[in-house]
Amino acid sequence: MALTFHQISIDELHTVLNLFKEAAEHIAKMNINHWQYWKNPPAEKLKWVQDGILNNEFFFIKNPETLTIGMVRILNNDKLYWGEQTKPALYVHSLVVKTEFNGSGLGKTIIKHIEGRAKQENINCLRLDADAKNPKLCTYYEQLGFKHVGVVTLPLSTYNLYEKDIE
């Protein structure tokens, strides 16, 4: 499926927060305590999203019919989760696929698209994190070829760090 990535503007912040909230509600239905802070986001998370939008790091993902099917944040560095790194990478955050599109392989397609972007930028590595309380998500990323390379504990949770070399 051909997907397009559309830069999110600050006036679309409400839509971004709604996508996070919908994802948190869906995750809660699976009895997983992951992302529940998005139901009523704390100030530091709101600032994190606003900063990402202002830095042109957030994208809506649209299908060929231009329907928004999800969103993602793509960064060139991520000191908060990863600290200082010497090997260049693209960092994937906040990958959300709307519930009605779950299970259709879109997550894998989105990751492949980001890999293509990395290659265009002569970057041979993707990095991401997954909440350690969500083993299903961690396994999913491992099935996509990501290797578990560390753990970081931040105020809201503990996260597994994953890295994937792009060939």
TrEMBL record:
It comes from the Bacteria. GO terms for molecular function: acyltransferase activity, transferring groups other than amino-acyl groups. Gene3D superfamilies: 3.40.630.30. Residues 3-167 form the N-acetyltransferase domain. This is GNAT family N-acetyltransferase.
